[in-house]
Amino acid sequence: MTILERIEAELEAIETQENLTILLAVESGSRAWGFPSPDSDYDVRFIYVRPREHYLRLDALRDVCEWRLDETLDINGWDFDKTLRLLHSSNPTLFEWLSSPIVYRKHLDFDELMGDITPYFLSKSGLYHYLHMAEGNYREYLKADMVKLKKYFYVLRPILACRHILECGTPPPMPFRELVEAQLEPSLIPEVEALLRMKEQSSEFDLAPRRQALNDYIESSLTHLRTEADKLPPIRKQPWDGLNERFLRAVETRE
Predict the structure, then answer these.
(1) 3-120+237-252 maps to which CATH number?
(2) Is the pLDDT of residue 203 over 90?
């Protein structure tokens, strides 16, 4: 059984055993970002809807479905009602799921159900999300003499995502190389390409000497981005009406 066949079998089992309909299933981790290691697992994320009666119960089930976690597969999903609440709050992880280049399954009505998500993206929320991610990973993993190669990508990608948000005001693209080409200083691209080649041939846990040129770029970027984030205007969210309508249409797909 291939990995794709195994993923599909797991998705079918989830629908049967959990009594739900999967609307979207995608890859969300390093494989979707474009910098997997040979031993990277598969981070499968899905959005689902349950029958109408579920949403009318006093003892409603959780709005997440945690299915499998092993050395190869990490599979879990969000209920559509949770998905729409996260869309309302401009959750950056949701925007990444919705733009993943690796789609395992998509319901015929999913795009219509989701509608236009662009108005729900809040630049300030997205900027702070990626900035905190970059700051935390840099502080914890990249200041020693020997560092995990993959952690550079967990700092550089959110930094470039922040730069995209400042420039375009839209959710950043999922593929790392797309962000590199558009946002990284040209002088650093060969350094990053060399790092990508090393990561493609190394384990998730391999260590290598710190890359000082990248550390210098990271530190200056974090300072700049923090200043720019603080300048952005206050957050103003969209009304709930459109999301309520989308939720009711999704529930009707189960009837």
Answers:
(1) 3.30.460
(2) no
